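In this section we walk through a basic example: taking a raw amino acid sequence and producing a predicted 3D structure, encoded as discrete structure tokens. The instruction is simple. Fold the sequence below.
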Amino acid sequence: MYRPEFWSYAAGLGHIYIDIPSRTLVFYYAGRQYGPYPVGLGKPSTPTPQGNWAVVEKDPNPWWEVLGSRWIGLNIPYGSYGIHGTNADWSIGGYVSNGCIRMHNPHVETIYPLVVIGTPVTISGAYPAQYLGT
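The resulting token sequence is shown next.
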């Protein structure tokens, strides 16, 4: 896994927002908006953690095929969560993962070069009631 020797000073230029109800990701970088991109999120039994997080690692060639072409790891303290590509494009737009944020490979490849270690990530919103079995 790629881990730079120091944190980037450019982290303040970008911010990733993930909206759980709409299953979208928007990346803002230096005043420019990328997206919204459709994403696949965690199943209700293994939800994507809400909160304010940060990027702590990047891997341009994840070893596990299901992670697609890129991995952007988050500092969520109670598991290994990240934003990544997928080899299952059909899963984008659903609540299907174990908590990670899945993107189409071309979409994650677009933002990957601009996302730096330390980039803030906000995951917000609630799961719609029909997905919670209520």
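Looking at the output, two observations stand out. The domain at 16-128 is CATH 2.40.440.10 (L,D-transpeptidase catalytic domain-like). Residues 105-111 form the longest helix (7 residues). In the next section we compare this with other chains.
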